[in-house]
């Protein structure tokens, strides 16, 4: 089992940047694919980006392409989400999640709030 703790959220002006971090503890970090999701008030949680176990393959939602970058450092047991050109509609609670091969994302952090002001 893996425990996940997000950090790096905050308030930023539209057009600005933020880097979210998610630190893991517990089970072997490199066994897990990792992802970022977000949930805005009154909306369902949605996929943002994911990265495979060794960091060689990533995928992102359409809204994130070209603006958000997911990366990981297995030595530090941390996954990152670098967000740029932020928009007010990016305001949400951002969650990181972990998945073993063949499984859905089953381990979740507590989330970090990102607020983008216009």
Summarize the structure.
This protein has strands spanning 2-7, 10-13, 18-26, 33-39, 46-51, 58-60, 68-73, 78-83, 92-99, 107-108, 112-117.
What does this structure look like?
The chain is an all-beta fold and 118 residues long. Helix content is 0%, strand content 53%. The protein is built from no helices and 11 strands. It has strands at 2-7, 10-13, 18-26, 33-39, 46-51, 58-60, 68-73, 78-83, 92-99, 107-108, 112-117. The strands form 2 sheets. Strands 2, 4, 5, 6, 9, 10 and 11 form a 7-stranded mixed sheet that branches. Strands 1-3-8-7 form a 4-stranded antiparallel sheet, with no helix packed on it. 31% of the residues are buried.
Helix tally? 0
Mean pLDDT: 96
Instruction: Say how many strands there are.
Output: 11
Biggest sheet overview: 7 strands, mixed
Ends apart, CA distance between termini? 40 Å
- Identify low-pLDDT runs: none
Topology as a string of helices (H) and strands (E): EEEEEEEEEEE
**What portion of residues belong to β-strands?**
over 45%
Instruction: Provide the gyration radius in Å.
Output: 13 Å
What coarse outline follows from CA principal-axis ratios? globular
Query: In terms of structural class, how would the helical and strand content be classed?
Result: mainly beta
| Helix-residue proportion | under 10%
């Amino acid at each position: 089992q893996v425990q996940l703790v997000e950090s790096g959220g905050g308030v930023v002006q539209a057009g600005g940047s933020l880097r979210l971090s998610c630190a893991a503890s517990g089970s072997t970090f490199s066994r897990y694919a990792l992802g970022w999701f977000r949930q805005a008030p009154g909306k369902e949680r949605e996929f943002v980006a994911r990265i495979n176990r060794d960091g060689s393959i990533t995928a992102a939602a359409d809204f994130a392409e070209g603006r958000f970058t997911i990366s990981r450092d297995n030595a530090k047991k941390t996954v990152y989400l670098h967000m740029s050109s932020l928009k007010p509609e990016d305001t949400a609670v951002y969650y990181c999640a972990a998945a073993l091969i063949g499984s859905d994302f089953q381990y979740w952090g507590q989330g970090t709030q990102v607020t983008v002001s216009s």
